[in-house]
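re: ur question from earlier - yeah i can do the single chain one, its not a big deal. heres the input i used so u can compare w yours
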Amino acid sequence: MYLVRLELATVAIILALAAALVVGSGDFFGGVASRHGRVLAVVLWVHLVGIVAMAVLGPLVGGDPTAADLAWGAAAGVAGAAGVGSLYVGFSASPMVVVAPVSAVVAAGFPVLFGVATGERPSAVSAAGLAVGLVAIALVSRPSGPAATGSVGAGVAWGMAAGLAFGALFVLFSRTADGSGIWPVLPARLAGAAAAIAVVAASRAERMPRRTSWPAIGLAGVLTVGGNGLFVLASQRGLLAVVSVLTSMYPAATVAWARVVFKERLGAPQLAGVALALAAVALIAGG
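and the output i got, formated as tokens:
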């Protein structure tokens, strides 16, 4: 029985790290698509592409979700949409250097507290790794460029709101049953698409992205669904406190893509964050 638990924990760690890589890559391509403008249209179509991707990936992974699993997924989708909205409002009101680290750390820390409150007990070594991981997330999430002007207080408030929403997404996905596969991601995408449609309609924004955005939108839609699915599988096999922190290291993948594609330099905080992230993974895996 101990070996079975150990194997499940190892699989959960691998899946969570894969989720961080895939989600971070999806965020990068979503950002590339948004550079061409019509951000709301990009968000909408990333969700719609994700629905199509789920129609392909769901049967491949398998699973037999219950109505409760699908309900948890839909709730997670609503939380995710709220998180994105809070993040964008925060970026418009305050320096990104304030909003991004706060949201990333809260998004990782909230599931940790929830997991401990509901009976999860990480080992001392894993707990140390979780603490190091939270610091790593804050460092990696820091933009390397100069901060914009704005209200620091507003940035902290909106960053916390976004982080709580993203953390709630992690918690809600983790409530799904082991046998549900990645199917809970489908109602999450549907709920997110419905929210995006409502916002686009209310704002009378452009419904179609620019032609140059379509390749990046396609990649972002598929990768986001894949990353969410990997997190769902990880949370079904390991401690929420562990997999949420590992998955929340996704900014490292975004930064790496930006370095390779746009030749953006990594700042000292980001380099330190990457090093701490590797140390955190080693501690969590060793615990």
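The longest helix spans residues 2-34. not sure if urs matches, ping me
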